[in-house]
Write a structure and sequence with these properties.
7 strands; about 30% helix
């Protein structure tokens, strides 16, 4: 049960109150926003092996999902059209169901070692064109469908968040073994993880085997 209570006195309820807390938007931050993919944006996308896609359903329930593949996995069809292959996942289909209900999407492209990122907003459509899907095959396996994004807004995002977080600095990498495995976390919070450590290791190894079988 959530014990935290917001004090209504400190809640910001309108844009005027929000903007009063900040300096005016820098002119360059406004000018940098484009409605199509210029040569630098296209180059950034071709170098990127990872993106996050934000979606919402009709009721405003939001979701952000990662997408990753070898660099250049997002195809650029023209200066206003991108295609993202949909690789095998957990079959929750949150992103895809949201797109059917509300096609507005936001993309954040990331390149390892780069502190700046590329943001792309637009409208998405789910397609199953066989020729298009075949062109995005990996290990002779084509995706079942693809997300075509009609671009409406493109701009580079500054490096502050990545520099504050030291995301790419090995000195700040954390030891994954200091937390339980993915499946143990899920089991602890649902049906309960096995008390037998050997059984838990077997379950974790099965997941690793599944990754190898179903990555594409």
């Amino acid at each position: 049960m959530n014990g935290f209570k917001l004090n209504p006195e400190f809640v910001i309820r309108d844009e005027q109150s929000l903007r009063s807390l900040f300096d005016a938007t820098h002119a360059l931050a406004l000018q940098k926003c484009q409605d199509s993919l210029g040569k630098h944006a296209q180059d950034f996308i071709r170098r990127s092996p990872f993106l996050c896609i934000g979606t919402q359903d009709l009721n405003g329930k939001a979701d952000v999902s990662p997408r990753g593949d070898p660099a250049g996995f997002v195809k650029i069809l023209d200066e206003r059209t991108l295609v993202i292959p949909d690789r095998p996942g957990n079959n929750r289909l949150d992103t895809l169901v949201n797109i059917l209900a509300n096609p507005t999407v936001g993309l954040l492209f990331i390149i390892p070692g780069f502190d700046d990122t590329l943001r792309v907003n637009g409208r998405a459509t789910l397609v199953k064109d066989a020729d298009l899907l075949a062109s995005m095959s990996v290990n002779d396996r084509a995706p079942k469908l693809a997300i075509v994004v009609e671009v409406s807004e493109v701009f580079m995002h500054c490096a502050k968040a990545f520099r504050r977080s030291h995301l790419w600095s090995p000195d700040h990498f954390q030891d994954r073994t200091t937390m339980p495995s993915l499946l143990k976390i899920i089991l602890d919070e649902t049906t309960g993880a096995p008390a037998d450590g050997n059984e838990m290791r077997r379950i974790d190894e099965d997941l690793e085997d599944e990754y190898k079988r179903t990555l594409y």
